[in-house]
Design goal:
The structure is a single chain. This protein has two helices and seven strands; from the N terminus they run βαββαββββ. It is α+β, with helices and mostly antiparallel strands and 75 residues long. The protein has a single domain, classed as Ubiquitin-like (UB roll). The chain has a five-stranded mixed sheet. A two-stranded antiparallel sheet has the order 3-6. Strand 4 and strand 5 form a beta hairpin.
Length: 75
């Protein structure tokens, strides 16, 4: 099982804070996004696997936690 979390404006836009999916061999972060949302993967979205920043095409394993964040802004 893979735990999927959404933070800040992504959580509000998607209407969910977290979900779980069954692990499948060779799944990427971008494929997880496509599996749990109906929206296109935003190019500027940050993502992490087990609290380490990752890239959308990085592979995810059973038991991992995947998190999606909007880009950090501020000044």
């Amino acid at each position: 099982m893979i735990e999927v979390k959404f933070f800040a404006s992504l959580r509000e836009t998607l209407g969910m804070e977290s979900t779980h999916i069954e692990a499948s061999a060779g799944i990427t972060i971008r494929e997880i996004w496509n599996q749990v949302t109906s929206k296109d993967y935003p190019a500027n979205t940050l993502c992490a696997i087990n609290m380490d920043y990752a890239k959308p095409d990085d592979m995810v394993s059973d038991g991992d936690e995947v998190a999606f964040f909007p880009p950090v802004t501020g000044g």
